[in-house]
Write a structure and sequence with these properties.
The chain is mainly alpha-helical. The chain has one domain. 63% of the residues lie in helices and 0% in strands.
Length: 83
């Protein structure tokens, strides 16, 4: 996917215009509303892996660290579950 196409895709998924993607105020609000994390973490706002899970869901993409986390948790659950 080319950069212009990627920007259009992300803007569409976030329901903003391409030019709004670079507006820090608008994007701060969008990120807070969608639980995507913010540049300066605030109490009650998703951080770290939680924000990445939300980002993967909102954009409809696979993020490697999210996939690996899910695989590891799944393996641990299988080991810990009673036979």
């Amino acid at each position: 996917m080319k950069i212009a196409e990627a920007k259009e895709y992300v803007a569409g998924r976030l329901k903003v215009s391409v030019s709004e993607l670079t507006d820090p105020i608008i994007m701060g609000e969008v990120r807070t509303d969608l639980g995507l994390g913010v540049m300066s973490p605030l109490p009650g706002v998703p951080k770290g892996i939680e924000a990445k899970f939300n980002l993967a869901e909102v954009l409809g993409i696979e993020i490697n660290c999210v996939k690996r986390f899910q695989e590891r948790v799944s393996k641990k659950r299988q080991r810990l579950s009673p036979p």
